[in-house]
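Many introductory courses stop at the sequence. We go one step further.
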Amino acid sequence: MTSRTPSSTPVLRRMLLWSAIATATLAGVGGAVGFLVAGAEGLWSALVAVLMAAIFMAFTTASILIANRWYGDALFVPIFFGSVMGGWILKFIVFLVALFLLRDQPWLAPLVFLVALIASIIASLVIDVAVMLRMRIPAVSDATLPTAADIEAAERPDGDSEARRD
């Protein structure tokens, strides 16, 4: 591993921070509205939905940040895509299991749960779009260009430069 980090790391950290703030806000508002609409069941339904959405939405960002630790390694690309794809598959399975476990719970108000879940997902998508639109990363941000010494070494007439051109 190298000490360099990809330029996307600060952006992803910012997404996690904004998502945490949005989750706290949605938990407060959703819990209050859920309590007003359906009592204690509405409160718990909204809180569980917001927490579920926050965990699942942060899971992808966290898996990318973890995979970025191998940036510069020869196996970075397979580690990165394996981490992200594995995270998505795991997230999908856990989400389905959670929904099956929650669907018949007596304390769950389905409508409050659904509205809180949809509001949380929309908030997360808005945050993702806002952060991505504001980031200032060039299209080729993490590329390394050859130095003058690299060019001079390639042009030396020691017979080795001809082999490199072919």
